[in-house]
Amino acid sequence: MVPGIETLQDPGADRPVAFARLAPPAPMLPALQAEVAALLGREWIAHVNQRDYRGGWDVLPLRCQRQHAQAHPVLQGFAIAGGDEWQDLPVLDQCPAIRDVLAGLHCPLRAARLMRLRPGAEILPHRDRDIELDDGQARLHVPVFTSPDVSFQVAGLPMAMAAGELWYFNAALEHAVRNDGRDDRIHLVVDCLANTWLHAAIAAGQPVYAPAN
């Protein structure tokens, strides 16, 4: 539990927040999409948790633990548990729009990655138990390229995200994703520490609560 901050739950019920939209589509979305399109020729790394998905799911790391700054991209993209020192990778020097998005998050940043789900691919139901508000951590999503044919379910609830929006979702709850569209789905995914600013943003973002057990 974060000292001085209560876990966001539905008043009168033991139900944590499943997800919340924190911001409407960013005005820099076209610039953001252009930057990501320019990065498609780089080496993206297949997600290492192969039991959790079918089809193509890969990652381009943007921020990593300082100790892995010169390491293999697999460590930069997936060694994201723990650690107190994080830094931007050189690729962000070419991405002012992404840097602007990150600068607008008024909380301590940890990992930042572009995550791509190929057409026809699916992320199977799973939980990321090391990313919990109770432990002072959170995961944020900014869809860069997406479509109505992408299904994102959190605790059985549909989470419909439009390109350019900023969302929090509770990664410790069971979640699953399908891309039934014809194009890649690419999100900017940011792990951060959950401070007072983030808790206030979630509370103000019309949060949707997980179903009662």
From TrEMBL:
Residue ranges of domain Aspartyl/asparaginy/proline hydroxylase in the record: 32-193
Classification lineage: Bacteria, Pseudomonadati, Pseudomonadota, Gammaproteobacteria, Lysobacterales
Species the sequence originates in: Arenimonas caeni
Protein name: Aspartyl beta-hydroxylase
Any one Pfam family match given in the protein's UniProt record, by short name: Asp_Arg_Hydrox
